[in-house]
Design goal:
Blueprint (H helix, E strand, L loop, with lengths): L18 H11 L4 H16 L1 H16 L8 H18 L5 H23 L12 E2 L2 E2 L1 H19 L3 E3 L4 H17 L7 H12 L3 E5 L4 E5 H21 L17 H18 L9 E2 L8 E2 L1
Antiparallel strand pairs: 1-2, 3-4, 4-5, 6-7
Length: 299
């Protein structure tokens, strides 16, 4: 990754209610070495971007241990209502934009469609009852996919992400359509996942993400970022199966989810990312102010 120090700080997207807190934290970290303060702020902003997913994972864990089978409301239905309430609060307090909400809705629908098919095929199951469900799939499950879309959209905004050498939209759209379709057709036809792994590298091999932690702009290859994010989602899926929220046929007793699922998340991340770019268009790094003693740099 490259370190770049822009002459003027970027616009920050913490939201109007948390901007004073960001400035307070920035001031408290000022005496630290730049790299340490930026590392701390990177972690804090990542946590802020993951907020929806973190709340959902926390609800999975808490409800697993406190929910009683004789309660009037099923656990899965509570999770659905809670997810709706969280989404409403995010919009009400401007922690999320309406454009981001549109992406999350689309991802919720595409995720639920895939869930219905996968459960029908016996890929995994939801062992608990629910009223708010379709064909054995509780509708809260769509929010688990939506949380990935939320993370993508919030990360792009919060870190002011810019992209170099971004491929044509028609090409990225075609790639993710094939990825999404393969999640269905591999039950009947040869699985194309290894071809698709290679295709993601070919299509996005030149793409670097330029992201601003606070005052420092760094870059990372998009393919590397996708792999690291898929590893995080694989850990989150292990939490989901540990709580018994959904189970795989092989999990008569709990065990770590196979590493093959990491590859599935890797591919699904591209579907999520391209859906987000339909609303939040990928922007190239822009040239920012220069001085006679300083070369032009981008962010």
């Amino acid at each position: 990754m490259d370190r770049r120090l822009p002459e003027r700080p970027p616009t920050h997207e913490t939201g109007p209610y948390l901007e004073p807190l960001r400035l307070l934290i920035r001031g408290a970290l000022a005496p630290l070495p730049w790299w340490l303060s930026e590392l701390i702020l990177f972690g804090l902003k990542q946590a802020w971007a993951c907020l929806f997913a973190a709340i959902m994972l926390t609800l999975l864990l808490v409800t697993k241990f406190v929910w009683q089978p004789d309660w009037a409301l099923y656990r899965y239905d509570f999770l659905f209502i809670a997810a709706l309430a969280i989404q409403f609060l995010f919009l009400r307090f401007r922690m999320e934009s309406w454009d981001e909400a549109k992406v999350i809705l689309v991802y919720h629908v595409t995720g639920t469609v895939m869930e219905v098919f996968k459960v029908h095929m016996g890929s995994w199951a939801y062992p608990e009852p629910a009223i708010i469900q379709i064909a054995g799939v509780p509708l809260f499950s769509g929010f688990m996919y939506a949380s990935v879309g939320s993370f993508m959209a919030r990360t792009m905004r919060i870190f002011d992400m810019r992209f170099t050498h971004y491929p044509p939209m028609w090409l990225t759209g075609l790639l993710v359509i094939v990825i999404y379709v393969n999640f269905f057709t591999h039950h009947y036809l040869p699985d194309l996942r290894y071809f698709l792994f290679a295709a993601t590298v070919v299509v996005f091999r030149r793409v670097d993400i330029h992201f601003t932690t606070d005052r420092t702009t760094l870059r990372m290859p998009l393919v590397v970022a996708a792999f690291l994010s898929s590893a995080f989602l694989w850990v989150a899926e292990n939490i989901g199966t540990l709580t018994g929220t959904w189970i795989y046929p092989t999990q008569k007793t709990w065990h770590v989810v196979s590493f093959g699922k990491l590859g599935s998340w890797y591919l699904l991340l591209y579907v999520s990312f391209v859906l987000v770019t339909l609303v939040l268009k990928p922007r190239p790094p822009t040239l920012i102010g220069t001085s006679p003693n300083q070369p032009a740099i981008t962010r």
